[in-house]
Design goal:
Helix content: 25-40%
CATH topology of the largest domain: BirA Bifunctional Protein, domain 2
Bound molecules: histidyl-adenosine monophosphate
CATH architecture of the largest domain: 2-Layer Sandwich
Number of strands: 16
CATH superfamily of the largest domain: Bira Bifunctional Protein, Domain 2
Radius of gyration: 27 Å
Distance between the termini: 43 Å
Number of helices: 16
Strand content: 15-25%
Structural class: alpha+beta
Length: about 425
């Protein structure tokens, strides 16, 4: 019996990996434009980090973590998200000692034992960013603007930015009381999980996917009804800045997000056309989290987006990835001697930084041209016995469909000149 990949995972093979690389390049570019530095944390952490950070009453911690004992009997968990790890690293590496705020981004796999369906995986990938040490509403607006601009750059259309304020530890006490009061006589109609949530963390009931629970919470008191003065002022300022930045946002008072660390601003980006798993990005402020995991009082805000879901949106919107990938040179050498010369030429071109591929299978010209087409090559350099004798190379421009003969010793300069004039990408 052949061995298959585990449920909820994917192989990213050539043909689709180029789309990932395209996104990764755009991510690194925008993070640099907005002044973020990369952080890389371990893929596994002490289980306690997520229990304390993400919260004991969340679905992630309760049902979805990949947790095991290692050989030293320590409880280890494959990271289900990145925020708790970044906060731990911020404390452990004393990044609070540097000028604040610290702006960090990460890119990598996350693990949740979920019921798999389209857009929902057990190993998925996030691009996330966290800003630590800044409590100004300007930080919230800048973070949301980065997301907005990122989707604009990569060409994601028809998105909705939902924002809410879930309040702080002070105003949440009042909200909790109001919510319990409202749900008291409906408690027995809630699902089993929500009856537990009612006692431990009633706000989580708003997140329940069970249709009967959703019907019960239609008219619940929201966190916006109980915001304290400070949280209300913060939320008003954030909205004003988002309006100034011309971000098309919608206030969604029932969006509470599925993780416990949020305070004040929370947001989600929803995309059309990819089915039920339409949240392509989620995030918010988490001012108490660093302290919760043993660090100094530090405000924080961030987001994470699911790469698989973004790719699904782009594919659904028929984005032409080929356009972005085109470029480079294919050396098509025919016959033994020409292959040796082609090998030498490829080496020279690569040393000059020109992306060069050479046929290694001894194919005929027709198949080599097909191969070059599939590669999206801009130029094919054709060399057979006749060209060797004449000491020339035939340069075929795949975009224009024409070809010229160039002396062998002039070919590198010819291509460098083309590159200088931006006639092809590398
Ligand atoms: P989250 O909403 O749990 O937030 O996940 C963020 C994004 O990751 C989602 O919007 C979705 O695009 C993607 N995602 C989540 N689960 C899956 C899955 N099973 N399969 C595919 N994609 C998935 C967080 O993770 C927070 N750490 C975000 C954050 C950062 N908040 C503050 N800073």
């Amino acid at each position: 019996m052949s061995i298959k990949r585990p449920k909820g995972t994917q192989d990213i093979v050539p043909g689709s990996v180029e789309k990932w690389q395209y996104l990764e390049n755009e991510i690194r570019k925008i993070c640099s434009d907005y002044g973020y530095q990369e952080i890389r944390t371990p893929i596994f952490e002490a289980t306690e980090l997520f229990q304390r950070g993400v919260g004991e009453t969340t679905d992630i911690v309760n049902k979805e973590m990949y947790t095991f004992l290692d050989k030293g009997n320590r409880s280890i968990t494959l990271r289900p998200e990145g925020t708790a790890s970044v906060c731990r690293a911020y404390v452990e590496n004393k990044l609070y000692g540097q000028p604040q705020p610290i702006k960090l981004y990460y890119l990598g796999p996350m693990f949740r034992y979920e019921n798999t369906q389209a857009g929902r995986f057990r190993q998925f990938h996030q691009f996330g960013a966290e800003v630590l040490g800044g409590d100004n509403p300007l930080v919230d607006a800048e973070v949301i603007h980065l997301i907005w601009e990122f989707f604009r750059r990569i060409g994601v259309k028809n998105i909705k930015v939902h924002i809410n304020s879930v309040g702080c530890s002070v105003c949440r006490v009042e909200h909790r009381d109001k919510l319990q009061e409202f749900l008291q006589d409906k408690k027995t109609d809630l699902c089993h999980d929500c009856q537990v949530r009612f006692e431990k963390n009633p706000m989580r009931i708003l997140d329940c996917k069970n249709p009967s629970c959703q019907a019960i919470v239609t008219d619940v008191p929201t966190t916006l009804d109980t915001l304290c003065g400070q949280c209300a002022e913060h939320f008003t300022k954030v909205q004003k800045l988002l309006t100034m930045a011309e971000i098309d946002y919608h206030i969604n008072p029932k969006m509470v997000r599925g993780l416990d660390y949020y305070q004040k601003t929370a947001f989600e980006v929803i995309a059309e056309g990819i089915g039920a798993q339409s949240a392509i990005c989620g995030g918010g402020r988490y001012d108490g989290l660093v302290e919760e995991i043993g660090g100094p009082t530090t405000p924080g805000i961030g987001f994470a987006m699911g790469i698989e879901r973004i790719l699904a949106v782009l594919e659904n919107q028929e984005k032409d990835f080929e356009e972005d990938a085109e470029g480079g040179v294919v050396v098509a050498a025919l016959g033994d001697l020409a292959q040796q010369e082609g090998f030498k030429l490829s080496t020279e071109l690569r040393q000059a930084g020109i992306s060069t591929t050479m046929d290694l299978m001894g194919r005929g010209l027709k198949n080599q041209m097909k191969f070059a087409n599939r590669q999206g090559a801009r130029y094919v350099l054709i060399m057979g016995e006749e060209e060797l004798t004449k000491n020339i190379v035939i340069v075929r421009d795949m975009s224009l469909g024409d070809q010229t003969e160039i002396p062998r010793d002039k070919i590198l300069n010819y291509l460098l000149e083309k590159r200088k004039n931006s006639e092809f990408l590398l």
